[in-house]
Amino acid sequence: MVYPIISSISLSFYNWDGMTPKTFAGFDNYIELFHSDTFYTALKNNLIWLALFLFAPPFGLLFALYLNQHIRGMRIVKSLFFAPFVLSGVVVGLVFSWFYDPSFGLLRLIVGHGIPVLGDPHTVTLGIIFAALWPQTPFCMVLYLTGLTAINPEVVEAARMEGAKGVALLWHVILPQLRPATFMAVVLTVIGALRSFDLIAVMSGGGPFDSSTVLAYYMYDQAIKYYREGYSAAIAVVLFAIMLVYIVFHLRRMLREER
Q: Which residues form the ABC transmembrane type-1 domain (predicted)?
């Protein structure tokens, strides 16, 4: 893990097309990056992804609490909730591309007319994020279900005998014991939001007019299409720095609460 990080940081200071010898560029790649309109569009979209993707953990918790009940037929319901989690990103992207299609998609049947969700720069990012939340929420749900099975039932029963119930029981008894699951759900959701790539590649290709591109896709675009390995490495370094700052902040906050 350490070597790829150091290698990417080193490569970001060079111009290289992947074939000819590297040439030292200093901070030129970073200067060009911070003067690129596409970079700021990608950064803005990543922040939108991050803000909306963080709805996955709370919704995952709600679904986990519902599915943790001992009700007849709950296994069938669980399997329905688990289904999006096992699908690949490519399949999810294709399913939602058909769903949004303004000519024959299910969305057209629901609203009564075609809406070019993926063809409108103002709606394409929101449409892709909604598609990404479909598998991400069950993923968080699985983490919380695992955490719920580890909760000591005697502690919950003792709290009920003391009069705790409903929201009070959830807030003061259950959620504190789910902190490890919450930490994992938030961290993995943040990583998923910042490294979002597959759905964008399948559903929009970063378009229209780069309006849905994110840093991970912009990095791929520069490396694969234009053979700018040094420039794409600079994008990777910036993306890693954003991810690291957010995760360290959340980790320190969680450790402070535990003290």
A: 42-250
